[in-house]
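Bug: token stream looks shifted between consecutive jobs. Job 1:
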Amino acid sequence: MFTNMKQLFTSSNKDLRHRIYFTLGALMIFILGISIRVPGTEDVTSSLGFLELLNTMGGGALKNFSIFALGIMPYITASIIMQLLQMDIIPYFSELSKQGATGRQKINQITRYMGIAFAFIEGYAFAFSFLGSSSDPIKYLYIATILTAGTSFLLWLGDQITQKGLGNGTSLIIMAGIVATLPQMFIDAFNGLITFDGTTQVITLGIIKFVLFVILYFAIVIGMIFVQESERRIPIQYANKSQGVYGNQAQSFLPIKLNTANVVPVIFASSLISVPGIIAQFVKNETYTLIVQKYLTYTTPVGFMLYVFFIFVFSYFYTFIQVKPDEFSKNLQDNGGYIPGVRPGEETTKYVSRVLSRLTVLGSTFLVVIAGLPIIFSQVTSLPTSVSIGGTGILIAVGVALETYKQLEGSILTRSYKRGYSRR
């Protein structure tokens, strides 16, 4: 693995290094933009609550109320909605999804327009929520326009990274925002756990706590990597394939990841449970606001159980959208393939559905633990809210980092194979 990565610094991979430099430069622009506050506004001093995930994914941009406060979350929301609409809900989008590259290009264009529209609506809502109802409506429009422009610029920047950089531009921007908050988080943890004006015993105990915090944090990251890379391989044989060297039929696998849905269920659950809070900010009704604070927030037992329930439901829903056992069974049968010991057709569909259900239970439990750790951690410690263990943000960063590394390593291997073949 490391031998392949060393080839990155050879003269033959100069263009690949330029792509890395371009990506780092683009991400640096994003980091600088986080600190540019929207003119006429101040930092958000109140608790963000359900918006903490958006703030984390934007590198603290929402807390700073910067021009990138919305990040690219409106585009992600639009992408999720477009995926749902392609499930035969609206025939037009279903047809586009079957038209290959042309259809995907059209879907991507519609998704961007929808994302920009969401950005304007969210920008207006944030301006109204954080500035109060006493401000001038023209100012709300002014702020919403700036935030929408910031999201539009990030979408363009993501396209540039995809075309001229390492690819996956929007994902890398999200990862950069999450990673940008880590140094400050460790500084806050250090200051919160270690008190230098106390006795030697107190200082030593604080240092031990901080070291344990760092070890626990990286142990959770390693656990995330293990789960993200875990998969169940269902063996598949094709009757029309030629036999192998020892007379056995050629065999392939259907890899099903343990966490097929990734972080989408958590985003869905966070969005759904945040709806009552958004309504409370606009309604300004004391009774309704009190009900929301007591029962429909993450920190309350009822709200936490609802959060967990939504994650499980959306995990099953989204996983079966991604894999589609009935379509897989049909395509496998049409291509002369079968699962050893399982009859083609209905039994194959049931078998894949059963395997998928079992894996989803484990994957959903993993998501619940990761999403619930920061909530529990904030309740049992007196550390600042910026300090957390686990969380959806770091899960996203780990997933994007793994995917980017695989793409980079694959590109180096492909180039080395081509050079080796050309010498023959």
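Job 2, same session, no restart:
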Amino acid sequence: MKDIQKVLIIYNPKAMKGRVQEFLPSIKQRLSLRFAQVDDVCAPSADGNEDLARKNAEKYDIIVSLGGDGTLHQIVSGVAKSGADCKIGVLPFGTCNDVARTLGVPRNLDGAIDCILRLNSTKYDVMYDGDGYAVYSLATGYLTQTSYAASTKSKKRFGRLAYVFLGIKLAFRYIGIPMTVTCDGERIHDKFSYFMLMNGESVGGFKLNKGEVLNNNKVKVVMVKKKGLGSLFAFVKLFMFGINSVKKSKYVIVRDANDILIENHSNEPFTLDGEKATFLKKRIQVNNAISFITK
């Protein structure tokens, strides 16, 4: 087994309600009980975490993401691009912390540090789009704007409720997005009120895919057709009871796939790991597994 000695914490300065600098000394002190070297660094810009992770993945045994899913998304992409055999740890201090929920990492500081100290790990598939890597979700349609349109101020004040408030405002906006989706060679064309690639258990703080295998080289593809109120009820059922509850619905198509080609016949934006993404055509392949520290 590889000797784990060196840890780098890459942190979002806005994490922990902007007080991350107050907590870093005690975090590093606890980690130093087990690891010989514990360093920390903050990217000079909001999108600089990927480059930091890529440059340091060969130098460290563990890179710890201190922040939310957006910070983690960048770090995973950087580690994956480096090709290094580096584990990723999570100190989850975002709004939803979906990857931490999937991994079973507690959303409290002491519990999350305990996970890193125990060093239990699992392989976690990531999605590659020809440019970068995504961890847990690519979605468009009904209410997906809430993940990137909610302001930092409202998320800081209301937490997950910020998404709910904005969701109510956007609830009846979508009339159907024409898309062609090819899943492992099967071509599906329709208008969808909601579309999602899900890699893990949790999206938006909702456990939709409990017990999902994280390293089977496939992701869930969920497509809710735009067919009136029936589609709305199917969408609500999906988020209340999970993917298994809608598998037999005539309004929903569910597939497990490794290679997905998405053709977006509109100008609707997507959300990629919670961040806004725009494209007309994108191919997603599940072709790499990263070592994550788990519960």
